[in-house]
Write a structure and sequence with these properties.
EC number: 2.7.1.12
Number of strands: 5
Pathway: Carbohydrate acid metabolism
InterPro entries: P-loop_NTPase, Therm_gnt_kin
Radius of gyration: 16 Å
CATH superfamily: P-loop containing nucleotide triphosphate hydrolases
Order of helices and strands: EHEHHEHEHHEH
Helix content: 40-55%
Keywords: ATP-binding, Kinase, Nucleotide-binding, Transferase
Shape: globular
CATH topology: Rossmann fold
Number of domains: 1
Catalytic activity: D-gluconate + ATP = 6-phospho-D-gluconate + ADP + H(+)
CATH class: Alpha Beta
CATH architecture: 3-Layer(aba) Sandwich
Largest sheet: 5 strands, parallel
């Protein structure tokens, strides 16, 4: 696990930095963002925000038709998610959002200083199986899985990141995530 880094340019020198109260659970479709995000939010007694609910009707229609979203399609969606994170951060919030590119993550970070990410990495085959298992309950088709992997810019070198193998048991993922969020960043340089 990577250590959490929560420095902020406007932080008062010597002031204690509390553990984060805003986290994005990210990854390609089928990695378990919504399940892990919702359960983690419950465990933390925080709000849960389902990122897919903020897509426009046009974005939903494109994806339903098997057309990958562009950066332009995602721009207003990311702006709305950033505003929602900022609105809820003081009380604690977990957002499920693919956040596939570094630029998307930076856009979200601009709204909430100290925002952290939990990257649920999943194999291509597992993602296909999970998305196929949703049936008609979800707008995202399996035909878009490859485009998600092609778009993904893994956040290996980014601060404030927990990298988890999403094919591990759910309770294990939740335990790691909750412990990581509670860790005092000054106690673990």
């Amino acid at each position: 696990m990577q250590k959490i880094a929560l420095s902020s340019p406007d932080a008062t020198p010597g002031a204690a930095i509390r553990p984060p109260h805003a986290v994005v659970v990210m990854g390609v479709s089928g990695c378990g963002k919504s399940t892990v995000g919702d359960m983690l939010a419950r465990r933390q007694h925080w709000a849960f925000v389902e990122g897919d609910a903020f897509h426009s009707a046009e974005n939903h229609a494109k994806m339903r038709a098997g057309v990958p979203l562009t950066d332009e399609d995602r721009a207003s969606w990311l702006a709305a998610l950033g505003q929602e994170l900022a609105r809820r951060a003081a009380d604690g919030v977990v957002l499920s959002c693919s956040a596939l590119k570094r630029a998307y993550r930076q856009q979200l970070r601009a709204h909430v200083p100290g925002l952290v990410f939990i990257w649920l990495e999943v194999g291509r085959d597992a993602a296909h199986q999970r998305v196929a298992g949703r049936g008609d309950r979800h707008f995202f088709p399996t035909t878009l899985i490859d485009s998600q992997f092609a778009t993904l810019e893994p956040p290996h070198d980014e601060a404030g990141l927990l990298h988890l193998d999403s094919e591990r048991p759910l309770e294990e993922l939740l335990a790691h995530a909750a412990a990581w969020l509670q860790r005092n960043p000054h106690a673990h340089p």
